[in-house]
Sequence to fold (456 residues):
Amino acid sequence: MASPPHTSKTLKLERYNSYLRRLHSTKVLNASSKLIFRVTLLIALVLILFFTLNYPPLSDKNPNHAHLHHHNFLSAALFTSSAGGDAWEKQVRHSSTPKKPNGLSVLVTGAAGFVGSHCSIALKKRGDGVLGLDNFNSYYDPSLKRARQKLLLKNQVFIVEGDLNDASLLTKLFDVVPFTHILHLAAQAGVRYAMQNPQSYVSSNIAGFVNLLEVAKAANPQPAIVWASSSSVYGLNTQVPFSELDRTDQPASLYAATKKAGEEIAHTYNHIYGLSLTGLRFFTVYGPWGRPDMAYFFFTKDILQGKPIDVYQTQDKKQVARDFTYIDDVVKGCLGALDTAEKSTGSGGKKKGPAQLRVYNLGNTSPVPVGNLVSILEGLLRTKARKHVIKMPRNGDVPYTHANVTLANRDFGYKPTTDLATGLRKFVKWYVDYYGIQTRAKKDSDINSEHPEESP
Ligand SMILES: NC(=O)c1ccc[n+]([C@@H]2O[C@H](COP(=O)([O-])OP(=O)(O)OC[C@H]3O[C@@H](n4cnc5c(N)ncnc54)[C@H](O)[C@@H]3O)[C@@H](O)[C@H]2O)c1
Fold:
């Protein structure tokens, strides 16, 4: 069949339709290029915003500032809320400025801790400037740390709340204050807990210590550093009394191993960067405001509550003994070490000459069997303990500690003067006051007259 013939009317209609199609496609093209333009503009804006927030301006040459800029958003937010601003800087400066000519300006890490709080107040009382740093972790009751913090505030010592591993915060502190010394006491303490939470020891005692040394080495002037090692580095050493020359390569716990690692790390930073470093090996420190995880403390609590206490014996049924050292003696040792610490020799992160590297025992030189400790407590609390004598489990504890302190005596006159009975009396007095316990011990006039209210 033939197709229908073309008339002029159908031709016109077709031309009109094709015109309409062209018109439509041009509109679509225009609309889509507008859309592409807008999307590109939006992406560009997002990218500009992202780079502005994440990278420092090219003109900022201060490496410390660059470091701060690279800090992640979350901690930057925390940082500005807890540390920073004019009021905060004023408080930091006020706390760390010495009140006497040639006084020290000391950053005390672990200032809310047992030894740290005592040392901070002792330094402040003699006119030195002190700034504390502590992360207030919950290894033991943080309310005790908060109570120590309150006491420090009363004594004009401000504690910055932060972690040793926060490089930006530490750098900021050194930007604000030219510390002459660091008394580094912050650590994960405790021998037994290392089996439960080994990573916390690595984080605070190794990574945190390295972080602090990195900041100290870069600071101008470099501070001198006195830090807490531990008698636990003697580990399975059988030579008594323990001397600094004895071997320390047989740690019995991860805690001891991290302290030993600290001593080796100290050697490295002294050798490469000229940091002046003094390690103090404390021997079972005890006293008021002490640590609830230590035997003298939880024995007191359990005896008062009528609970049984585990008293350890060695594998060959001998008494476990400790060279218990009273806090005031240890504080004197720490201050003596700070006063005799020579200046670091480096600057701009580079060593300029040999620097001092020391290690000292700070003990009491007279070990006491743990059984005797319990008898003294029974007497002070006037309560019989329910003793449960068992073999010492293999949990990192060592059977015996005994310090030779000849070196500390020679170099800064360290001479412990408090025997265990005297020191425990002061501890028990504090304990019953602090926890508001009505005991027969509390009525004992001997105990009541001993201890001044305020000293930590
Ligand atoms: N008390 C002793 O018998 C004894 C014996 C040997 C060695 N030492 C050492 O002496 C030092 C002081 O001991 P202490 O008995 O006062 O202990 P402590 O636990 O009372 O004090 C340590 C303080 O450091 C803080 N801290 C821990 N990790 C931190 C971190 N990463 N950043 C910031 N703060 C952190 C804790 O919150 C705590 O307040 C420690 O280094 C400890 O290992 C103590």
